[in-house]
Task: structure prediction
Amino acid sequence: MFSVINEAKKNMNLPDKVAIFDTTLRDGEQTPGVALTVENKIAIARQLDKLGVDIIEAGFPISSKGERDAVSKIAGEGLESHVCGLSRVLTPDIDACLDCGVDLVHTFVSTSDIQIKHTIKKGKEEVKNMAVDAVTYIKDHGIKCLFSAMDATRTETGYLLEIFRAVEDAGADIINIPDTVGVMMPQAMRDLTSEVFDSVRIPIDVHCHNDFGLAVANSLAAVEAGAREVQCTINGLGERAGNADLEEVVMSLTSIYGVETDINTRYLYETSKLVERLTGIRVMPNFPIVGENAFSHESGIHTHGVLEDANTFEPGVMTPEMVGHKRRIVSGKHAGTHGIRAMLEEMGFEIKKDQLMEVTRRVKDLGDKGKVVTEMDLKAIAETVVGQVSEDKTVIDLKEYAVMTGNNMVPTASVRLRFKDLDTDKDREIMGAETGVGPVDAALNAIRSVVKGIEDIRVTEYHLEAITGGSDALADVIIKLEDSRGNLVTARAAREDIVTASVEAMIQGINRIFLIREK
Ligand code: KIV
Ligand code: ZN
Result:
């Protein structure tokens, strides 16, 4: 690791290991629009167990019958991870958790003035007593207890420490500092955690929300100051802007801080994908670690560097393999020939220099038009370019074509071609027009009729595929042609415009037929 980082670490109260408390199935399920079935919750719990989280907060049992059912079933799965249920500091809530057979009860109460005034509507002393009673009740049942002072970061510090000491004395196993509305800044989180660290002997857990995008930074700041457990969610799900993202917390601890967790990081990507699928909340492509672009390189300078040594434009201390992801070289307007050649070689193309230049030109052209060039697009472009008859061998070339179509007219096309007379080796122009059932048919009929004087060419098959979605998708046309002697050729072209792709494929096919006949 670099010396600036090593220097900074000297001033931190870092442990060797941090426990990961996953709340995807509780706070994560509070993401607006997310409602998981019992089966989905079980599937996610199994995956979290495979991932190696220390604690799975399976739900809030008092909130519904379905929730109790899910928490009971997850608790009965025999997972390695400890299963936790959430409760207010109320006996019925705690009983609901106990009935589910959880390993740990996470009990919470608001401690900030604003929340006490508007939600609990009781005196501060009474709130403290309720917290103590709840912890005592849980411990009397021989169960582990985590206590959270909700809205801790907006709580008067003296009162917060008082309540933490009181629940510690009542037997709480661990206390949590929630940044419930995500208003902390890393230095403030460090200061508060240090103060709590100096006031209690039990371990400290943190729970940070992401309202200002600081949830991960604040969680890590708490670890720097003595927190030994971090609450987080897969894909950063959670109430409002979500919670600290598990993938980011774990990889930062592992790869930058050098602090261990029990997470098997190779399952991070597949876990993210499962949660994405079951919750329906899409992960942004530029999301760190598990986003589709997290290890993708597009610009010529970057792809060139990465192909030499991936560490040039990647963190190095974190590789795609470490998190079960893949490195991708993608093409777009910033693409360079190095990257495109590497991608094409991987696809099995043997490409000449002039063909590579032409593919690159077409890719950049599409990129300039704002199009994302997918692997499928690139393959289609390369197949078109590689399959082209080289210019000096072409018998006909397209000079221009035009098509007219509409709801009250017969589609009509005109074409102008350059034709090289093979007997005299002289070029001449040929042109003509035709109608058809649609613009493509009209254009192909026009070419056929113009060429008819030289050779009668039939279109025996026509296949069109839109490679990527949207009305500006790249159209991949494959066409099969037959001449009067029964010679059959296939030609292909990919363009954004269906008619242009069809015309190019047809011209290419005709040139191939002439090439065969010359032999
Ligand atoms: O954000 C919060 O304060 C919570 C508590 C239940 C810990 O989710
Ligand atoms: Zn929360």
The domain at 21-277 is CATH 3.20.20.70 (TIM Barrel). Residues 236 and 245 are 4 Å apart (CA to CA). The longest helix spans residues 498-518.
